[in-house]
Amino acid sequence: MTTRIEHVLGTLAQRHAPALLNQPMQGDARWRAMANGLARQGILVLMAEVGAANHPNQDPLVNQWIALYGELYYAFAQALFPSFTGVDAVYADNQLPPMVVITGECVPVIRVLAGYAVPYIARRQGTMPSDAELRGVLVYMLDELEASDLPRVRYENLVQTSMDILRRLCDQPMRQITLTNFSRPVFGEEPAQPQPPATIPDQPKQSEDETPLFSTDIPVFFERKPRQKTGRKPPLLDLPDRD
Hints:
The protein is of the alpha+beta class. The chain has helices spanning 2-16, 27-39, 58-80, 107-124, 131-144, 152-170, and strands at residues 43-49, 87-91, 99-104, 175-176.
């Protein structure tokens, strides 16, 4: 499993941030450093276990999970950086547990998702976190984005919307495995992050010609609908073709 994670993150780093490959660390510390570094480039790598490896309804569950992250990204980007709301998502490969790569135009939002939302969801999944705790996490995120000058009503609307999304993410029937660390302690002294599951072995290796990373025939999770001039939020951008 670690070999697979390192391969996906290493391939992304080679394309987008080659300096990350020079990390002196080894093992888990190395791939966590790469995942954190990629988030600073606007690339968020997510991973989750969906019950048994042959779960019959895996794709809809993954779609729902990723769509919620898309909603959270859009809520922050639209409120704070409305010119940079574009985001797309693809499977990193065809293996299990699913790994998904989210790429957003608004790098600061991707960074706070990676540094707060993702590890928080992994820590609180399957629970009913309090409003006070959810608000506290969001205040950290908004502080890092320097959102204090946002009009009070818009600030509160963003917090309430995001609290609802975080709560729904905690309630998803998946075991999320965070590849990124908290940007700063949220629960005091942080315990070790959840490790990749040992119950699902690495899949047989396939040649790059058979399963290229970011193959365009991998499903896109966000709905593709014509843009309409209504009060509803616009659809997320289509996935661009990748070489």
